[in-house]
Design a protein that fits this description.
two-stranded antiparallel sheet, 2 strands, MTERF, nucleic acid binding, transcription, transit peptide
Length: 264
């Protein structure tokens, strides 16, 4: 607990903030959890009129529903410490200028608020990079791409590309995987290598096929990938499926392929 709270006036400083939290829908059980979360004891020492209320109103203007704001505060209470005018507002304005719809902005605010708290120039560079890499601002993948490009150092991004490149993937194929599922760059080197080794060396699928469906890299090896692939092997042995069974099958008019055998 922040010891400076002991110097606060209980009636004039602390009580009004507790009443505010209760008025917006936080329960008597939620309030202590929000306040005692890591680094969030500072909430009680921040100005109610100049920080907490304006930040709450701003969050509600982005997330629309009060219940969405409450969910965010329960999981990420530090968001109430964000500087709305100097950081959040300019970054959201950047998204709107790029043609990002409100639905995607709300999605980004809810899923990765720390990305929106980036320094404005750095955030704008991330948005511009996502546009240059042909991400569609109308889709949630754009938000994920901005998150990765803003939160990850360029050198780390290149290191992740090198890890994928060890499997014979070209730069274009790696970027295709990134455009399909941007968060694949957030996976650890160990996770990437372990899953690729199993799918390529043990199951015999081509690395390019996996790159077209990078979501499979997120699945748990023991609980999902290995059991389902074991079933596939049994079906192949009994000739109950075609020998050229692939990791993915085509769906709709999209030229790429989507997961089915493992993710289905």
């Amino acid at each position: 607990m922040d010891p400076t709270i002991l110097f606060c006036n209980p009636q004039k400083t602390i009580l009004p903030k507790l009443e505010f939290f209760r008025s917006i829908g936080l329960s008597s059980t939620d309030i202590p959890r929000v306040i005692c979360a890591s680094y969030c004891q500072a909430l009680l020492s921040r100005s109610l009129e100049n920080q907490l209320i304006p930040c709450y109103n701003f969050l509600k203007s982005v997330l629309f529903l009060n219940q969405n704001v409450i969910k965010m505060l329960k999981s990420r209470p530090r968001v109430l410490l964000f500087n709305v005018e100097k950081v959040l507002a300019p970054n959201i304005a950047t998204l709107r200028e790029a043609g990002v719809p409100q639905s995607v902005i709300s999605f980004m605010m809810y899923r990765s608020p720390s990305t929106l708290y980036q320094e404005s120039l750095k955030f704008k560079e991330g948005v511009n990079k996502a546009i240059e890499m042909v991400f569609n601002p109308q889709r949630s993948t754009f938000a994920h791409a901005v998150q990765v490009l803003c939160d990850m150092h360029e050198s780390t991004f290149e290191q992740k590309k090198e890890v994928y490149g060890r499997w014979g993937l070209s730069n274009d194929e790696i970027l295709l995987a990134f455009r399909s599922h941007p968060l694949c760059m957030n996976l650890s080197e160990e996770k990437i290598m372990e899953t690729m080794d199993f799918l390529v060396n043990k199951m015999g699928w081509q690395a390019t096929v996996v790159a077209r469906c990078p979501v499979v890299l997120f699945f748990n090896m023991e609980r999902r990938i290995i059991p389902r692939c074991t079933v596939v092997k049994i079906l192949l042995t009994k000739e109950l499926v075609k020998k050229d069974l692939r990791l993915t099958t085509q769906r709709g008019s999209v030229p790429g392929e989507v997961c089915e055998q493992i993710s289905g």
